[in-house]
Design goal:
With 277 residues, this protein is mainly α. 70% of the residues lie in helices and 4% in strands.
């Protein structure tokens, strides 16, 4: 049974401590409801904060990786468009070579005309090879070799794709100055060289196309992964408003009753005066 004392009002001290704890709980609830976050600093939940930061880092990495992969697709499409044009030119050159190889029906003028067009098309291949760029990066002159595309959130080979595009200049394709269609015999040999070049360019296009498909699949996978990571992150740091508002309402009631009881407890020592009357 508690004694009636004046110097140490334990009831008031207990009531004060309870009111102070309720005030802290209310402040936390207000902070959560105003920010929408249950973890704002590491002090709120050290383990949860570490986990959430790791998830956020990975999700941000996925966002950038998606952008990187999409840029890679754009780069490949740029190269593929130029390769398609070169393939079309080679098909025309093949037709010219086969036309000139038909010596029985060609005269000097027609052979010379075919040679002029053949030479012009060869020059166009070199022009495309030397000017096809993605930004300032040359794509088809043979210098684009072992280039890394970062398509993941981490620094390891599983998060990277290495891409090379072989050069497609006339020299690289075997279309040297000695390949001509100015006479039937030379045209027959030129047709074989051009057909080999067509096969070579087709192989390069196939390799580039396969990489494009790979990057498209990577983007799709990263998009799903990013959504899952963001969902997991939200589950850790976002506040449950239903729970938080319920807690806040309870704290409000406790604060009001606590203040009332503190006021009553502070009046208890005054009862001593009745004993002194």
């Amino acid at each position: 049974m508690s004694s009636l004392v004046v110097n140490n009002n334990l009831s008031a001290l207990n009531a004060y401590n309870n009111v102070n704890q309720t005030d802290m709980a209310m402040s936390k609830a207000i902070s959560q409801l105003s920010s929408g976050l249950q973890i704002q600093t590491a002090a709120d939940n050290p383990a949860g904060y570490v986990t959430a930061e790791g998830l956020q880092s990975q999700a941000n990495g996925y966002t950038q990786a998606i952008s990187n992969a999409q840029n890679g697709v754009s780069l490949i499409q740029t190269a593929s468009g130029a390769l398609n044009q070169i393939a079309s030119i080679l098909q025309t050159m093949n037709s010219l070579a086969l036309a000139s190889a038909n010596g029985a029906t060609n005269d000097t003028n027609s052979l010379n005309a075919n040679q002029q067009e053949f030479t012009a098309l060869s020059n166009e291949i070199n022009q495309i090879s030397n000017t096809t760029q993605f930004g300032t990066t040359q794509l088809l002159d043979g210098s684009f070799s072992n280039q890394t595309l970062q398509v993941g959130a981490f620094d390891n080979s599983n998060n990277q794709i290495t891409l090379s595009i072989a050069g497609v200049s006339t020299a690289a394709l075997g279309l040297t100055s000695g390949v001509v269609v100015s006479n039937a015999a030379s045209a027959q040999a030129a047709a074989s060289v051009v057909q080999a070049a067509i096969s070579n360019v087709a192989s390069i296009e196939a390799n580039v196309g396969a990489t494009q498909n790979q990057l498209t699949a990577v983007v799709a996978n990263l998009t799903v992964g990013q959504q899952n990571l963001q969902s997991a992150y939200a589950g850790i740091v976002d506040v449950n408003f239903a729970q938080a508002t319920t807690t806040y309402s309870t704290d409000q009631i406790l604060m009001q009753s606590g203040v009332a009881m503190l006021s009553q407890a502070q009046q208890t020592p005054s009862l001593v005066l009745k004993l002194l009357q």
